[in-house]
Amino acid sequence: MTDITQKYANLAPTTAQKFRQRVLPFLALAVVLAIIPMSGPSGTAYTLLNVMGINIVFALSYNMLLGRGGLLSFGHAVYFGLGGFAAVHAMDAIGSAESGFWANYPIFFLPVIGFAGGALAGAVIGWPSCKRAGTPFAMISLGIAELIAAAGLMFGSIFGGEEGVTGDRMVGHEVFGLSLGPTSEVYWFIAFWTFVGVAGMFAFTRTPLGKLSEATRDNPERVEFIGYNPTRVRYLVFIFAGAFAGLSGGMAAVNYEIFTPEALSLVPSGLVLLMAYIGGIRYFTGPILGAILLTYMQSMLSDFTEAWLLYLGLLFICIVMFAPGGLAGVLYGFTDALRAGKLGEVIGRWAGQAIGSALALFGMIILVEVAVHWSNGFGETFEPYGLHLTFGNPLTWVLIVVPVVAGIVILRRLANTEEGVIA
Amino acid sequence: MSENALSLKGLTKSFGPAKIIQGVDLDIKAGERHAIIGPNGAGKSTLFNLISGLYTPTSGSVKLRGEEIGGMAPFKINRKGLSRSFQVSNIFANMTVRENVRCGVLYSMGYGYSFLRNIGNLKEVSEKTAEILESVDLIDKANLPAVLLPYADQRTLEIAITIAGGADVILLDEPTAGMSHSETDRAVDLITKATEGKTLVIVEHDMGVVFNLADRISVLVYGEIIATGKPEEVRGDPKVREAYLGDEADGLDEGDAA
Ligand SMILES: Nc1ncnc2c1ncn2[C@@H]1O[C@H](COP(=O)(O)OP(=O)(O)O)[C@@H](O)[C@H]1O
Ligand SMILES: [Mg+2]
C-alpha cells in the first residue's frame, strides 16, 4: 500500500508546480487589479475597466458551456439579464427599505443576488433545454432567448418596458468604506467581484463536476458507462453557467444603475459568444483575453468609426479560419515555441503571417471605410492623409485590391509550405 | 446453489425487420469467467449493448443478481455494479491517462456530481487511480494525453476505465482485438489479475485466449446460442464445428493444443 501511495505522490503535480499553475496566476491577477488605480487612470479609463471586468466574468461563464461543456448557446445573455434585473430590483428594495433584510443588505453584495437569480433562471430554463445536446440544444437556446427577450418588452412591471428599471447605488450600508459614487470607487467593487468570479470559475474546473463536464463534452456515451448521467452533468453545469452570468449581471446593475430588456436580447448573447471564441474557448484564459479586447474595441473603435461591427465580423472570421485556438491559442503557441527553443523557426513564419494579415487588413479597412463614408453621408468620401478616396478614383481600388491580393497570396503560400513540412 | 450474477431469458432484439438477437437464454454464475464466441455479425456486441443498457430489449428479460435491468439507463446499471468495455476504444481522448482512470473511479467513491471538492485533494480517489494504473501497467504513462497512447495501450486503458469503478460484473468486448501476440499475452494476464473474484463475460476471437481463460463458453450464431458449456464440451460439439468452417475450425483445434 505504501508502495502505491508513493507512486501516486509522483503522479500528482508537485507543490511547486501547483503553486506555479494555480496560485501564482491568481496572485498576479490580484496584484494587477490592485496596482491599476496607482497609474492614475482617467474617468473614461475607469469606465472602460469596469465594463471589462463585467465582460470578463460574463465571457468566462459562457465558456463554462461552450468551451468546457461543449454546449453552444445563443441565449446566454438571458441569465446575465435576469441576474441583472434581480439585482436592480434588489437595489431599489435597499433604497426604499426602512428596516428588515433589505435595509441591512449592502449594495456591494448585489452580485450575490445576481448569482442567485442567474442560478434560478438556469435551473428553470435548463431543465427542458439540457435534455438534448448538440444542435437541438443550440436551437432551444435560441428559441428561449427570443422568448425571454419578447417577454422582457411585454412585462413592464418587471422589466420596466423600453426604458428599463433604474436604481441608485449610493444607498444602504457602505462596506470597505466605499460609497460607490465615483467610477473610481466602483472600480474596487468590480475588481473584487471580477476576482471572485474568475477564481470561482477556475475552482469549478477542478471539481469532480467540472472534470465530468469535460468528459461529457468529449465522450457523452462513455460517461454513461462510468455511472454518470450526461443530462444531469449538463444540467448542473448549465445552472452554474447561469449563476456566474447572473453574477456579472449584478456587477453591471451596480455599474450602470439601469437594466433594460435589451440586456436580455440576442445582441449581447452574440457578443459574448464572439468574446469567448475570439479569445479561445479551449483555454481558461481565452475568454478573459477576448473580453478585454472586444470591450476595448467596442469603446475605442466605436469612437473612431461607425463600422466597428464590420471590423468585429472580420476579426471573428479571421480567427475562425486562421487561428481556431483564438488569441490564447496564438499566445500559448508562442510561449511553447519559446520553451522548446524553436522560436527562430516559428517567428519567421509568424512574421510572414503578420505581414500577410496586415496587408489584407489594410485593404479591407480602406474598403470598409470608403463604403461606410459613402453610405452614411450621401456621397461623403474617405479622406485619410489628404487623399481623396472616392468610388470612382482608381487609386481607391488599387489601395484595396493590391494589398488584399498580396496578403492572401502570402498567407496561402505560408499555409502550403506548412502542410508541405507536415507531409 | 450459487446465485446467478447474470441471467438472460428469452432475450430478443430487432432493428426494424432484422432480428439480430433471437431468443437468448443464458445463466452466468457469480465468479464465473464466461466467454462468448461466434462469427462476425452474430450479435455479440449487440448482446452486450442489451445487457449494459445501451439498447432496450425488444422482448425478454435481463437480470443482474436477480434484479431486472433490461431497458434501464446505462448509468443506473453501472451503479449496480456492472461495467463494460467497448470493441472500439471509447476513451476520453483529450484527457491524460490518469484523468481517464480517475473519471472511472469518481462515482464509485461517492463523489458523484460534487462541486464543492477539489478533485486533486481527494486522497482515496488518487490512491485508487494509482492502484488501477499500477495493476494495468500504465503508471509510467499516467500523465500522457490518452490520444497519444499506442493502440495496445489504448485498449488497456479501455479495460482500466471499465474496472476502475470496482464493478463485480465485468463485460469485455474483444479486449485483445488488433493486438500482437505478446501484447495479447500481457492483456490476458492483466485481465486475469484484474477480474480476480469477479464475474467476467468476455467476447473474444483468439481461441487460445478463450480456452485458457474461460470456465464456460457460449457460442452465438445468428443471434442464437447454439451451445454452452465447459471448453472441452463446446469444442467437441458437432453444431459448433459446423458453424465454424475452414480457418476457424482450425482455430478450435489450436485451442485444443493450447
Ligand atoms: N443499432 C443497430 N441498428 C441496426 N443494425 C444493427 C445495430 N447494431 C447492430 N446491428 C446489426 O446487428 C448485427 C450484429 O452486430 P454485432 O452485435 O456488432 O455483431 P458481433 O459483435 O457479433 O460481430 C450486425 O448485422 C449489425 O449490422
Ligand atoms: Mg462485436
From TrEMBL, chain A:
This is Branched-chain amino acid ABC transporter permease. It is found in: Cell membrane. One of its GO terms (molecular function) is branched-chain amino acid transmembrane transporter activity. GO terms for cellular component: plasma membrane. It is a multi-pass membrane protein. InterPro entries: ABC_transp_permease (IPR001851), LivM-like (IPR043428). Keywords: Cell membrane, Membrane, Transmembrane, Transmembrane helix. The chain crosses the membrane at residues 23-40, 46-65, 77-97, 103-125, 137-160, 186-204, 235-254, 274-296, 308-334, 354-374, 395-415. CDD domains: TM_PBP1_LivM_like.
From TrEMBL, chain B:
It holds the Pfam family BCA_ABC_TP_C. Keywords: ATP-binding, Nucleotide-binding, Transport. The keyword ATP-binding applies. The keyword ATP-binding applies. One of its GO terms (cellular component) is plasma membrane. PANTHER family: CONSERVED COMPONENT OF ABC TRANSPORTER FOR NATURAL AMINO ACIDS, CONSERVED COMPONENT OF ABC TRANSPORTER FOR NATURAL AMINO ACIDS-RELATED. This is ABC transporter ATP-binding protein. It comes from Litorivita pollutaquae.
